[in-house]
Design goal:
With 466 residues, the chain is of the alpha/beta class. The protein folds into 2 domains: 235 residues, 3-Layer(aba) Sandwich (Rossmann fold); 204 residues, 3-Layer(bba) Sandwich (FAD/NAD(P)-binding domain), CATH 3.50.50. 41% of the residues lie in helices and 17% in strands. A 5-stranded parallel sheet has the order 3-2-1-4-17, with helices on both faces. Strands 6-13-7-8-9 form a 5-stranded parallel sheet. It has a 3-stranded antiparallel sheet with strand order 10-11-12, with no helix packed on it. It starts with 10 loop residues before the first strand and ends in an 11-residue tail after the last helix. It binds flavin-adenine dinucleotide (FAD). Flavin-adenine dinucleotide binds next to helix 1, helix 2, helix 6 and helix 11.
Length: 466
């Protein structure tokens, strides 16, 4: 364990309160540093609430409990429903609020653009992006749900290759079977049973086939082969570990296909689309090979998949905030460090916000390791003193006489000037007041959505809102 050089008079803003943000808050708070956590949503649960499909009941509840424990403690002030970049501009936060450091833990919420020119005109009609799709799936049963509504069609195509794309195609098949079983046979099976047992088993139980229910298999299209899907991370960089992980990925895909009855089309990339009367009718794909990671087109190998529902699950990148540097869609970090944002002395990033991908454990690990480094290397007494001088440089140029007194006060008392801390407290209290926020506990209890598993009477598929 490295020596902890941190200095507790820092005041830190954390953007995003979920897995990585709450991990950072916990470490800093336990070291006596005061933190304000801003989250764009009412609840700070990020992808745990809106990314993980809602059949992961235990995983979700466990993670939420952990986040609550980390955020609901002394030294942490939570500010919900406040998006940095729009409600508060990033540069405003950096320059005018008085935080001595800012940690970005805002995840990756912007779907990568589907790489076919002109296709965006079908967005939210025949073209659906993963983030909005899962948000709909997780929350559509809530009576207060006012997000985008989607209607799952029979000939869906999902493009992607990660674990999230498997969740997406599972949702498609589960929803189709659930609906058709009810409409065609009057049988009600809930989502959780269909997910747990699998579509195949349930159909077998009733001695039906997909054809009996007029369902066509959804298709998952990936640019590489099954074994190259990033479903299992290799233990290390050795060839043996890589091959082992590839075999696990291949087997996982086969298992999913058997259970949820979808087709897999490997080594294909989208090229263009077909349309009729303003509606998307199909995607033209090109067969490719991948050698040493490089994708090469195979000549004369295009084919069309007819579809009126294309779901893009090709990954997410951090949403850009004006004032921050980006390279190839992700935050530009300083050389040799995994957490320091380029061009800033006191701006850091952790979790999915850095890589644009990962899983819960990875985000937690990154949050923990990077925050320990930030604490030890960057939240020092020296850094705070330098920052205070920098922060006051504007005043310095305006009221020179006044500044001398202020600087003396800082170095003798070794604290941030009272007015800076007071400013942060006042501004954040004002937001909380406007929102009707009293305590973390009250707020989260008040805003937790109705859970499908609590509302669904046994063997019913839908909830009717009064
Ligand atoms: C479909 C799907 C399935 C998955 N399944 C699994 C799984 O089975 N197991 C697993 O381990 N992982 C899974 N993951 C991945 C896992 O959920 C994430 O890697 C992890 O939760 C990321 O944590 P994070 O804190 O880095 O980011 P996030 O959870 O994205 O948190 C970012 C937080 O920042 C807030 N925020 C964003 N922008 C702003 C802003 N501008 N201002 C203020 N606040 C902001 C957000 O509201 C959010 O609370 C899945 C992901 C998806 C999409």
């Amino acid at each position: 364990m490295p020596l902890n050089n941190s200095y507790k008079n820092h005041y830190v803003a954390i953007i995003g309160g979920s897995i990585s943000g709450s991990e950072a808050s916990n470490i800093l708070a336990k070291n006596g540093i005061k933190i304000v956590v801003f989250d764009m949503n009412k609840l700070p649960y990020g992808k745990i609430e809106d990314g993980l499909p809602n059949w992961h009941i235990n995983l979700r509840n466990r993670q939420i409990k952990e986040i609550d424990k980390k955020l609901d403690q002394e030294n942490v002030r939570f500010i919900p429903s406040t998006k940095i970049g729009s409600n508060i501009k990033f540069l405003d936060l950096i320059n005018n609020w008085g935080f001595s450091a800012v940690i970005l833990a805002n995840g990756a919420w912007k779907d990568r653009k589907f790489p076919v020119e002109g296709i965006e005109k079908f967005k939210d009609k025949e073209l659906i992006y993963q983030n909005a799709f899962i948000n709909w799936f997780n929350h559509k049963h809530e009576c207060k749900f006012n997000g985008k509504n989607y209607f799952i069609k029979n000939n869906a195509v999902v493009v992607g290759g990660g674990l999230a794309s498997l969740d997406v195609i599972k949702i498609v098949m589960i929803e189709l079977v659930k609906k058709q079983l009810f409409l065609k046979k009057g049988i009600e099976i809930d989502l959780f049973t269909l997910e747990k047992e699998g579509v195949h088993k349930i159909l077998d139980r009733f001695k039906f086939t997909l054809e009996d229910l007029d369902i066509k298999k959804a298709r998952l299209v990936y640019r590489r082969t099954a074994k190259e899907m990033p479903l299992k991370a290799p233990k290390d960089d050795s060839e043996e570990s890589i091959l082992k992980a590839q075999e696990v990925s291949r087997k996982l895909l086969v298992k999913y296909q058997e259970k949820y009855l979808f087709d897999f089309i490997p080594q294909s990339v989208p090229l263009s689309f077909t349309e009729n009367k303003g509606k998307l009718t199909g995607i033209i794909f090109q067969k490719v090979t991948a050698l040493n990671g490089k994708i090469t087109s195979i000549k004369n190998s295009t084919f069309e998949l007819k579809t009126e529902m294309l779901i893009s699950s090709i990954g997410s990148v951090p949403e850009k905030m004006e004032g921050l540097p980006y390279k190839n869609g992700t935050l530009k970090m300083r050389n040799n460090t995994d957490y320091h944002v380029d061009g800033f002395e006191n701006v850091f990033a952790i979790g999915n916000a850095v890589t644009g991908k990962g899983n819960i454990q990875e985000s937690k690990r990154h949050g923990k390791e990077m925050t320990s480094l930030i604490l030890n290397k960057n939240l020092t007494k020296d850094a705070l003193e330098k920052w205070v001088v920098y922060h006051n440089s504007e005043i310095k140029s305006k009221v020179k006489k006044h500044l001398n007194g202020m600087l003396k006060e800082i170095s003798s008392k070794e604290i941030q000037p009272e007015n800076i801390i007071e400013g942060i407290l006042n501004k954040t209290a004002e937001i909380q007041k406007k929102l009707g926020y009293a305590t973390y506990k009250d707020w989260t209890i008040k805003n937790i959505p109705n859970r499908l598993e609590d509302e669904l009477p046994k063997n019913k598929t839908n909830i009717k809102c009064l």
